[in-house]
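User: quick one
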Amino acid sequence: MDEQTRLMHSHTGVGMAGHPGLPQHMQEGTGGTDGDGRKQDIGDILQQIMTITDQSLDEAQARKHALNCHRMKPALFNVLCEIKEKTVLSIRGTQEDEPPDPQLMRLDNMLLAEGVSGPEKGGGSAAAAAAAAASGGAGPDNSAEHSDYRTKLTQIRQIYHTELEKYEQACNEFTTHVMNLLREQSRTRPISPKEIERMVNIIHRKFSSIQMQLKQSTCEAVMILRSRFLDARRKRRNFNKQATEILNEYFYSHLSNPYPSEEAKEELAKKCAITVAQVSNWFGNKRIRYKKNIGKFQEEANMYAARTAVNAANASSHGSQANSPSTPNSAGGYPSPCYQSDRRIQ
DNA sequence: ATCCATGATTTATA
DNA sequence: TATAAATCATGGAT
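Assistant: Done. Structure below.
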C-alpha cells in the first residue's frame, strides 16, 4: 500500500514541486497593469494547492472546482505538462514484463495437486487417491480417516477460496478507486494512460504478493494435514486382531525358522489385508522382540502352539491332510540353535 | 502424565 | 538384498 501512496505522492511532488518557477515565469511574461492582480490570483491558487491536504474534503473539493473553472487553468495545465516532460524521464525505463515467480508457480502446482485450487470435487478424489497411495494401501479401516481428511481439506479449500475472492474483490475495488482518483486528477495534472496502467500493475503486484502469502499458508496447512493423516509412520495403526492372529499363528508354527518365503508373505499379506512389506516388518519386529525376551512371549507361544495342535488334530480327524499347517513346532525353537530340519521353500 | 506395545524407519551387516 | 538391531513415533491402557 505504501508503495502506491509513495508513488502518488511523488507524482504529486513532481507536479507541485515544479511550481515554484511558475510565478516567476508568469511575472516575467506579464508586465501589464492587471499583471499584479493576476499574479496575486495565481499565487493564491498555488497556495491553496499546496495546502490542499490540510483542508477538509469539502473545502478541497470546492477549491478543486474553483481551480478547474479558473480561466488560467489550461495554461497551468500546459506548464505542468512541460515540467513533467522534463522530469518524468526516469519512469520510462522500468521494465514491464514480469517473469512468473518460480515460487508462486510451485505453490500453485502444489495447491492444484492437493486439490485445493482445482475443480471442486475432482481435486478431492485425486487427493484421496494420493492418500491411499501414501498410506501404503493399508486396509479398509482407514476410510473413515480419509473422509475426515477430505472434510478438513474441504475446509481448507473453502477458506482459501473465500479469502482469495475477498482479495480479488478488494484488489478490484482498490484498483477502480485509484483509477478514478487518477482520472479525476488527470483533469488537473497530466497523467498518461500508461502511468495509470503502471499504477494498476503495481497494485496488482501488491495484491498478488498478498495472495502468495495466502497460498503459502494454505500449502502449510495442507502439509500439516497430510502429515497428520497420511504419513503412515505418524498415523500408526495396529493391525486388526484377526491379522495379528494369522501372523502369530504362522510365526509360532514356524518358530524354528520364522522366515516366510516371498510366496508365504504374499499369502499372509492377502489374508491379513496388509502389504507384503508390512508382513516383512511384522516378522522382523517379531523375531527380534521374541528373541530379546522369550519369557515374555512364552504364554503367547504356548497358546498358539495349542491352537495349531487343535487345528491339526481337527484336520487329521477329518481325514483331510491337504490343509494341515505344515510342521508346527513347539515353542522355544527360536532363537536357540535349532536342530530340526524344518526347511521351507526359501 | 506416564508407560508399554507396536508398526515403521533407519542403519549395519553378511 | 534380506535381515538384525536400534530407534522413532504413536496408540492405548493406566
